[in-house]
């Protein structure tokens, strides 16, 4: 049967698609674990309507499943299917490692190593890529074309790290200084792109394209006068036009090296296009924006929100996720936002969060089945004093009911540096850290 809708947000479940075929008992068991009831689209189910009706009554459920409400919902679903969505476009790319309805914690995408074990490798991969990116920026500043072999060598260790464990590199990326600069943006944009690509089950060569596109999203800023790009006062209309030129300048830089394929170019060209047509430089709308361009837009927006700007400080990752959710269906396609949030988590790895008890912790690992219950590294006690030892708390293993005295849940997020905490002191891969 085709499950078209749940009784809760898809983001609160381990299912990666809004709608999928259920054909196995373990899939039904997983649905029961997270949902009280689901909505079945009989037109997309191989099971006849009569058998669905029979199963409905055998389950003891009340009412007729084929009421006016059911029929109206079915019409709505049929109408929605006429719109070619993000996930349909992705399937044309033939990503591997996923089938429709496969949960994010599937065996094929399970962490190979722990976050603690991967942390040193993640730090090394980041450092290596950062050095290569500095070389690339220097070449471009001096008028040379981008060496594709050099940029591929930069992203390959990051791909390896993310495939072993995405949380380690995500945490390290969150530690980087919130400076407003091309180098700072490029590194973290590549990380978010890789984590999303891994989540979607992309093959290695597509992960490579995503990472290279992330590194080069804002390469065109090298052609923007520093007096405009770094201005800490409101920009004039003419200055806004100059800033927007970085997209075309970036495409020119990337195209100077004929070795890059269209996916990478699409990311650079379309990362400021918006789903409602309000973006630039071409005002593309909806599915006229290439898939990689839609991905790039979300990645760039998220990274901009959590980064320091000349006119404002950075926002915390949790607030950035909430802001993206508010823009979902307007500036960005719903499915792109959903997949991005599922990949990073509602409380992204590396986030500083506060619990209902007043305790403060760092998110160090996502729980792919219970997204609001990640693993935490405890930093401050309820009185905001340093804990005696930085233990790891698996929220999924403690009560979450408000009636239980031992219950714990996350109530909010903070930017790095709040409470005089330097997250670098706690990263597993750095000397002297936990």
Q: What is the CATH superfamily classification of the largest domain?
A: Hypothetical protein af1432
Helix and strand composition category: alpha+beta
| Proportion of beta-strand residues | 5-15%
How far the N terminus sits from the C terminus, by CA atoms, comes to 48 Å
* H/E element sequence: EEHEHHHHHHHHHHHHHHEEEEE
Strand order of the largest sheet: 7-6-5-4-8
Low-confidence stretches: 62-72, 74-85, 94-108
CATH architecture of the largest domain: Orthogonal Bundle
**Number of separate domains:** 3
pLDDT average, as an integer? Answer: 82
What is the name of the CATH topology of the largest domain? Hypothetical protein af1432
Kindly provide the name of the CATH class of the largest domain.
Mainly Alpha
Q: Helical region count? A: 15
Helix content: 40-55%
Number of strands: 8
Radius of gyration equals: 23 Å
State the shape.
Answer: globular
